Amino acid sequence: MSEVNDTNGKAGGAPDVRLDAVDEAAVWLDLNGSPAVTWMCTPERLDELVVGWLFGEGYIDNQAEIVRMRPCTSELGFWVEVPVDKYDAVERAERRRVLASGCGAVTTILGSMSDVPRRRAPSPELDTPTLRKLFKELFARGERYKDTGGIHAAALTDGQTLLYHAEDIGRHNAVDKVLGAAVLDDRSPEDLILLVTGRISGELAFKAARARISAVATPSIPSTIAVDIAKAARMVLIGRAVSGNPQLHRESEGREPGTGNREPNRPEPGSATREPEIR
Predict the structure, then answer these.
(1) Is residue 123 pLDDT above 50, yes or no?
(2) For residue 39, what pLDDT band results from cuts at 50, 70 and 90?
(3) Partner of 168 for a Cys bridge, out of 38, 42, 215, 227, CB 3.0 to 4.6 A?
C-alpha cells in the first residue's frame, strides 16, 4: 500500500491526514518476439501473473511448455518464448480484441462460443455453509484488502480448502495469478472451483472455461455473456454466493447440487430466464 499525506496547504507542510492508495503498475509481456499484453496490475507475484495468463489464453498447457522466460531488469516486463505450434494455433484462432469490462486491463481477447471447451465431468456438489466458509477464509487472507479495501481477490479450491489465493487491483489479474500458481505447482486447475470477489464477466468466464474450471462463485453476480459461456462449457456459475440464497447458473442437468432425489426449483410463471437457486 502507498500512503499519500495531505498537508492542506499548512505552513511548513506538516501532514495531518493520511490518504491511502493501492499500488498499481504497468507490466508488459513480449511473447515470441511480439508485444502481447500490458497489464495494469498490483506489482507482485508477477511470475504467476505471466504463467497464468499464458495458460488461460491457451499458449501453454503446463509450465514445461515455457521455452524461455526472462524478466526485464530495467522495468516491469517479461520476454517469454513458447512452442511455435502453440503460439501459431492461438494466433490463428477465431478471436477478437474487445474492450474489457474489467478493471486492470484496457482490452482482452475473446474467442467465439465454438472455442469454449466442454467439460465432461459432473458438476461439483456445493452447499451454502461450505461456500460461506471458503469465502470467509478468502477474505481473512486479504492483507491488502484489510489495508485499503481497494483490491480484488481470487482463490482456487477443491471444495474443502483454499489451495491458491491472490490479490490484485484487477480481478482478472487475480485470477491469472491463482491459475499461474497452480501451473507452477504442476497442478492442473481442471475441475477445481474458482472463487472471485467481483462480478463474473464474460472474459473471466471464458478464461475459467479454457482452464476447465468446474465452477466459479462470487458474492456478486455474473453477466449474461458469462452465463452463456458457462452453459456452453458445462461450468457452474454461482452468484450471491455468501447470501442466504446463492443463485445457480448452469446448463440444465435435471438436479441441483445437494438436492438428492428432490425435484429442482421451477421458475415462476413469466420468469423463465431466472436461474434456480442453491438451497
Answers:
(1) yes
(2) very high
(3) 42
| DSSP H or E stretch at residue 118 | none
CATH 3.40.140.10 is the classification of domain 128-249:
yes
Closest CA to 90 of 120, 122, 65: 65
* Pairing assessment for the beta strands 77-81 and 107-111 based on DSSP bridges: unpaired
Instruction: For residues 204-220, give the mean pLDDT.
Output: 94
Q: In the beta sheet, which residues pair with residue 248?
A: 238
Residue whose C-alpha cell reads 511473447 in the numeric block: 31
Return the C-alpha torsion angle 60, 63, 68, 72, nearest 10. 100
Q: What is d(CA 250, CA 263) in angstroms, rounded to the nearest whole number?
A: 16
Q: pTM of the full predicted structure?
A: 0.80
Backbone angles phi, psi at 277, to 5 degrees: -115, 150
CA distance 60 to 54: 6
- Grid cell at residue 87: 503460439
Grid cell at residue 26: 504497468
Question: Which three-class secondary structure state does DSSP give residue 2?
Answer: strand
* 103 is known as an active-site residue: yes
Percent of residues, the chain, with pLDDT higher than 90: 62
Rounded Cα distance, 73 and 80, in Å: 14
Task: Report pLDDT for 143.
Answer: 84
Q: Where are the domains of the chain?
A: 25-115, 128-249
Dist CA 200 CA 214 (whole Å): 14
The position carrying cell 465432461 is 120
Averaged over 154-173, what is the pLDDT? 95
Regarding predicted confidence, which is higher, 22 or 265? 22
pLDDT at site 62: 96
Pick the catalytic residue from 103, 113, 184, 221: 103
Instruction: Give pLDDT, residue 19.
Output: 78
